[in-house]
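Troubleshooting: if your tokenizer reports a length mismatch, compare your output against this known-good record of 114 residues.
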Amino acid sequence: MKKIISVALVMVMVLCCFTACGTIVEPNVGTYTDSSDTLVVEVGEDGAMKMYNNMNDENSYEGTYVVEQNEAGVSSIITFTTSDGSTVEFVYDSTMDAMQDLASGTVYYGPNAD
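Known-good structure output:
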């Protein structure tokens, strides 16, 4: 009886590990801004994303994004593809609700940022 319980416990633990390994964190829907509230990224529910500058209307980009796992349950890589085909990559950290532009290093803080 002890062997059956031990085997069942091990199976449950293995299942939990595989489930946790595949968890991809999604960014929260809402507005992300840099520390000066000048640069803005809006994340939509339907995979839509928009980037713009509050000071200059000419620098406005709309498009879609896809999310890939970076660190299970903690961070993801977000690839934003604009309507003209260019891409911007971000690292999303769910513990801080922040996205960092990999090219410029700009950090955008989300609606639930600490």
